[in-house]
Amino acid sequence: MIKTTTLGTIATGALIVALAQPVYAQQAQSGAAEGIQDIVVTARRTEESLQTTPIAVTALTPEALTTAKVENVVDLQRTAPGLVIGRGSAGGDGIVFVAIRGQGNLQPILANDPAVATYVDGIYIPRPSTGMTDIQDIQRLEVLRGPQGTLFGRNTTGGAINIITNDPTDQLSGTFKAEYGNYDNLGAQANINVPLAEGLAIRLSGAINDREGYGDNPINNRDFSDNHSKFVRGKLKYDGNGWDLTLSGDWNRQTNHGQQIALWDFDRNSATINALGFAPGLTAGLLSRDNWWRNTAMGTSVPASIGALPPEIQSLYGVQPFNTLEVYGFSGTLNVDLGGLNLKSITGYRHSMNYGLSDTDGTAVPLLSTYAGSGSYYISQELQLSGNLTDSLSFIAGAYAGKESGYEFSRSQIFGGLIRDSNADVTNKTFGLFAQAYYELTPTLRAVGGFRYTWDTRNSVLHNAQVFGRPYDAVDLTTPTDINCTVDPTDPVTATTCNQAQNAKFNYPAWNAGLDWQASDNLFLYVATRGAAKAGGWNLRAGGLPAFAPEKVKDVEAGLKVDLFDRRLRFNTAVFHTWKDDNQAIVNSFVDGIGVTQYIQNNGKVRIWGWENELTLVPWEGMTLNVNGSLQDGKYAKGSFSETQVVAGSGCTNPAGVADGCVVDLSGLPLLQLPKKQLNISATQKVPLGAGTLAVTGAWSYVGSQHFDAVRAADQQPDDIKAGYETENRLGRVPGYGIFNGRIAFQLDDPNVEIAIYGRNITNKKYLLRRFPDLYRTLGIAAAYVGQPATYGVETTFKF
Q1: Listed residue (685, 674, 725, 729) closest to 82, CA to CA
Q2: What would you measure as the largest C-alpha separation in the chain, in angstroms?
Q3: What is the pLDDT of residues 459-481, one digit of tens each?
Q4: What are residue 721's phi and psi, to 5 degrees?
Q5: 393-414 and 368-388 as β-strands: parallel, antiparallel, unpaired?
Q6: Predicted TM-score (pTM) of this structure
């Protein structure tokens, strides 16, 4: 465990080393142009140098994105400390689970938001499915670490991903890239910038990719984890006299034959599995080193009892795994110079749709298959006013409003029976006011203070049925309601109506205060404390439960940024301590009318601390070395996190009055998506060679073990139940892993053509992205989501 005192000692040592260097740095300025170049970022919603921004932020230029072969948000895990990205879900692979500094969300559904916000050109992206879309024609990508609630709003308790795409310019230019690799990976990208008139220009970009699957199914001779995607973006910009307007639109669609899921383990003592004769088939489908990229998933089976269902419902049976993702949006950004002040208007519309079929056991056994998906549209409007009030005082202030409407569904087939239906309509509204000011106390010492207040409305209507396709009012004595409708209805149930309305309102603050000091031309230090919140919401798949309130986070962060040795060495470091209250935790408990179920509630106080470093070194001509990493740890405050488990005959008592309900202290469990160690190392050597330049890059990325599920049994539970809890808890941990990537490129001077070969996971490392043991104690299975095998290819890029 990393102690706060240890972090302080390390930071102090780094500070002493840094303070000892400026004299040398000032002795030689003639070669500065050959050193590390400055990067302009918008981490505080205005342009400023990376090295004088008092925030822990990683900024990736187009060259850095190309060299690291970052193609979507998933690839960012290899580029920034404290950032982990999970893949794989029982609801399909259209969702990305982004966590920064241990702040994440493994259930970011329509009524439960992510903890790390994604912004594209200033537009908030509400659903994490957009994280899987292509990253093309990017000017800069920023990973902001730590709470960003004042300027970026809610759902930034962990931080934010800030993506800035290229604007149209007054120069005719273009790029074309073609790629071919193993698994018949064929891709093409293009963009063109065309000036249309004085001050008016347009920029168009697009990409297409078609790749066979990494995995294969020997039963149906079908590959999976393939990719078929199309992307297009257009931007039109007009620069007027004292104002400018940018209009943008984009569209992305991706499809595949299912994700890379496999059966990791199953309960060989399960009475249900043995009674149905599933054990041999599950044993045959277990993941092993010899069949790491193979499964036998067959999707939904066809029971004889579907004959009474409508034809459109019958068509859902006998379907093999698949996924479909489509997102698109439009935006308009207006800047107006008011003479000393600047007014900015950002208007956005985002549409997100993803759905698919996942065979959660990963085998030919008809144990569990799930149709899941969601769709929503989001309209947002932000107004900003910024500028200088005096020579020493500047500010930014504004208002934000957003409305999201959509639906979500999860339809599961268990043990080959009839498909159950869980679906809901959701409407989310938010409004916020914010202001932040900067005051120069001295020419080198600056103070910052900011505040934001947010008002949310979260409404949902559930429509859950025991059998999908039957009338809601059909008799079904297996449900708590004795009819096919399984929710607590707001209105009388009819054959076509089954509604449970859930409405809630929340309001909460965010804030920021800090000091920064330009100690010398090359040394910048800062200290800050911030507060932010993740929005409250509803449990959509278990009706009758109360809403969960916003999750609140505050932190303290200190950092330094230094350029040394004629800007041939750049070292940025930050230490932090985070306090989280009203933790939105997944617990198990008994609910009247539902029984024992799993749901989200506010439960637990969390403490997280860590140390992050980023080093860039140019030791000799043509060589660039990048190293970044993090050490972090955390825990629940003792006695703050608990759940209620019903143990028949135990006589346990609890504050809620649940009969035989035993309260279990969970505060000793590990935090989820919090690897204690991360390290990313890359080196690029450029060598002039004839009429061009040869660049060779090697990169190694390591992420430590992390938990995706953590449970504990009550002391009163029988031994066999305790064993199930212990097994699930063990299976919830994913071992750490490291992968090695490489790229060799030759850049011609004239024409502007680059030819490159690349390899990802060159050593063909067999690793797991995530384990999913959440169903081990109920259905007796634990799934695993497998990382990609070795891939390699060649790409050619032409620019003019």
Answers
A1: 674
A2: 86
A3: 999 999 999 999 999 999 988 88
A4: -70, -40
A5: antiparallel
A6: 0.92
